[in-house]
Amino acid sequence: MKILAKEVLTENSGVKVTKLEILAGLVAKKARPGQFVVLMVSEKGERIPLTVVDTDINKGSITVIVQEAGFTTKLLGKLKAGDSLYALTGPLGHATEIKNYGKVILIGGGVGIAEIYPVAKALKEAGNYVEVILGARTKGLLILEQEMRSVSDKLHILTDDGSYGEKGFTTTALENLLKAGKYDLVYAVGPIPMMKRVAMVTKNFSVKTIVSLNALMVDATGMCGGCRVNVGGKAKFSCVDGPEFDAELVDWEGLEKRNRVYIEQEKHICNLYKI
Amino acid sequence: MRKEPVKVKEKEASARGANFDEVVLGYSEEEALQEASRCLQCKNPACISGCPVGINIKKFIYEVTKKDYKSAYFTIREKNDFPSICGRVCPAEYQCRKACVLTKKGEPFASEQAINIHFLERFVGDYGVKNNLEIPVEKDAKFANFKVAVVGSGPAGLCCAGELARRGIKVVIFESLHKSGGVLRYGIPPFRLPRDILDYEIDYLKKLGVEIVPNTIVGKAITLEELFADGYSCVFLGLGAGVPAFLGVEGENFCNIYSVNEFLTRVNLMSAYKFPEFHTPVNVGKNIVVIGGGNTAMDAARAALRLQKMQGIPVNTTIIYRRTEIEMPARRLEIEHAREEGIKFEFLVQPTGFSGDEKGFVKKIRALRCRLGEPDASGRRRPVPIEGSEFEMDCDLAVIAIGLSANQVLTSATPQLKTDKYFDVVVDPNNMETSMKRVFAGGDIVGGEGTVIEAMGMAKTASNAIVVRISE
Questions:
Q1: Given this model, what pLDDT does residue B472 score?
Q2: How many domains does chain B have?
Q3: Is residue B358 within 8 angstroms of chain A, CB to CB?
Q4: CA distance linking residue B56 with residue B77, whole number of Å
Q5: Interface of A with B in 115-154 (CB under 8 A)
Q6: Which chain A residues touch B279 with a CB distance below 8 Å?
Q7: What whole-number percentage of chain B has pLDDT above 90?
């Protein structure tokens, strides 16, 4: 659980995204695209889920990329190479079904780009035609551009302010692609509003659309049900039934609300520890 | 004249609440001696048959009367590895005490007059802990080259590990969480089972040579096949019944509706009651409703009430249960403690839904009144909802404690492992071996939710079978 390397990918307009390479031999051996780990920074820490972005079996390491948004992710960002985490377990959740679908579109928004990277790479290796749409608020916040370029047949970049690539939203680009041609799969990870809009767009094109959800979790092994989300009218646990679900069936509003359940405590603890 | 039972000392109800300190303080030596002297030393003691692991209760109580606590400890330890834990959590009123000859015939639970076997067990167990009494280790050189993997560090796993380690077999416990103890740590609150007792028992296993590997999910990080390939001779599965049941009613996903597992895991395992010193939060409501009638429901309600006190919120925590008090599966002592502490009870009430505010937080619970009908498969009278009796209660935090089922992380990754319709692992009850050779199982993953002592009983049977299998 030692941190082998740390790199700040971006620090811009109050957003900081950090990449950590962590020693975790068993996880490195087993993790497949789409799976995640749960980690604790300290003995008194929270358990938080993070997607496995990359693995190195020879080094026995995994890579996670984290946006330092809440208390625990900021605490994690304070660790340096050589420091150790208190706990890390995984791989958790179902892996993405990797096969040759044909033509696929992957959409990554913000730090969600990190989460689509391993899936894009695997889908490319499986022979798919991979088209990628990346979205960021501004140029400085765009991460993994080179990596994504290397695993995609075609790459579209959009920024909210037009400082890089096209100005606009990922969903507009998605809609244009779906209007112009036929695709067999859409895979999206990003902020909830983005994934929600993706679901609304693809609904009109009858294309299978998968999203990976970022619900709050504790144990992440199906024991607590804190991560439950309504999918197609049924309560599903993001940790063991997901984290991927059919975008069309997800109760986005419910998920958004449940993810804000500790917002007050979050503010309080950040103020208290001046973090 | 028959002597009166010795009441156990408890923290005053008024002094409880704003902390998670233990409530039952246990017997002093004099009290233990006095209570032990009430035992009739029956020629054919029924109490022993009431114990799921068959502790020689008559003998250990006799040894207590002779002040030979050391012998009493070893008498219990012959059958039960963790007397100081079971003395605290065993539902004795359904087991040994109910079988005690002093219990009136036909009573649903032990009579008050029945010997307080569990408090005596606790006294002896704590004596063992305080005096570091170590069970003689009978390490057998022929086992030196064998190692056994135990999956899960709850009651079943710990017991199986201890039994094998005592015979000189190398045991490695794989635990998915960051701390060991399973339900003893994430489920049972410290006010019922202090953590130093649990840590003592786990440390003792480590002293016996048991290795505990936390943060490792068998079925995900490592498969059963890989364990065998790594040289393990046998595997014991003590996976527990980890998946919480929900009501399946409207509005159940509102914020501040917790499964009992989530609520207790946040509070117990993650120490959310010490937030922000510990970083995991838990919400506290003004009108807390706990749904269920088992020990976990009592634990959740009592934890919730403590959180209200700690935050200076006027206490208002209600347990709602669809049957009546007598059908509640909880230990009678827990019900009594809950009531003393100020928990309210609403019996014959069945939730039908929740409503919330625009931010998605629960505000009200809807429910139907019930009456008791004919007995169901469990032998308890079935609750029958009364038409048109629906009512609403204020509820800004709900905890659903209506049962648990098998965790399928390992079994779904291991199709060779035969499970039943409840996804429990199927075993041969004689030796607890599963459909996979050299894979044994025990505890709640076999036959669903049970007690700590039942889990230990199964683990003991399995450990004996493992020894036999290794010896072959």
A1: 82
A2: 3
A3: no
A4: 10
A5: none
A6: 42, 44-46, 71-72, 75, 269
A7: 84
A222 vs B222, B242, B246: nearest CB: B242
Give the nearest chain A residue to B218 (CA atoms).
A90
Domain that holds residue B305: 245-404
How far are the Cα atoms of A105, A144, A259, B188, B399 from residue B293, in angstroms, in the given order? 50, 53, 30, 15, 12
Alpha carbons A89 and A1: distance in angstroms, whole number: 9
* Closest approach of A30 to chain B, Cα-based (Å): 6
Read off the pLDDT of residues B336-351 as tens digits, 9 standing for 90 and up.
Answer: 999 999 999 999 999 9
Mean pLDDT, chain A, whole residue set: 95
Has residue B136 been placed in a domain?
no
- Per-residue pLDDT at A33 exceeds 80: yes
Residue B367 belongs to a domain: yes
- Selected residues 194-223 of chain B with any CB under 8 Å from a CB in chain A: 214-217, 220-222
Please give the structure tokens belonging to residue B386.
């009364």
* Interface contact A218-B407, CB threshold 8 A: no
What domains are there in chain A, each with its CATH number?
Answer: 3-92 (2.40.30.10), 103-212 (3.40.50.80)
Q: Which of A91, A235, A258 has the CB atom closest to B220's CB atom?
A: A91
> What is the pLDDT confidence band of residue B1, given thresholds at 50, 70 and 90?
low
Residue B24 sits in a domain whose CATH number is: 1.10.1060.10
Read off the pLDDT of residues B4-40 as tens digits, 9 standing for 90 and up: 999 999 988 888 878 899 999 999 999 999 999 999 9
| Separation CA B252–CA B244 (nearest Å) | 13
Mind listing the pLDDT tens digit for each residue in B265-291?
999 999 999 999 999 999 999 999 999
Among B214, B246, B265, whose Cβ lies nearest the Cβ of A235? Answer: B246
Residues 6+ apart with CB under 8 A from A102: A128, A129, A183, A184, A185
pLDDT tens-digit map of A223-252: 999 999 999 999 999 999 999 999 999 999
Per residue in B274-302, is it b (16+ CB within 10 Å) or e — as a string? ebbebbbbbbbbebbbbbbbbbbbbbbbb
Residues B96, B211, single domain; the answer is no
pLDDT at residue B429, as a whole number? 93
Q: Determine the average pLDDT of the residues in A28-41.
A: 97
A-facing residues of B in 402-461 (CB < 8 A) are: 407-409
* B400 shares its domain with B413: no
State the DSSP string of B274-319. GTTTSS------SSEEEE-SSHHHHHHHHHHHHHHHHTTPPP-EEE
Question: Distance, in angstroms, between A6 CA and closest chain B CA?
Answer: 23
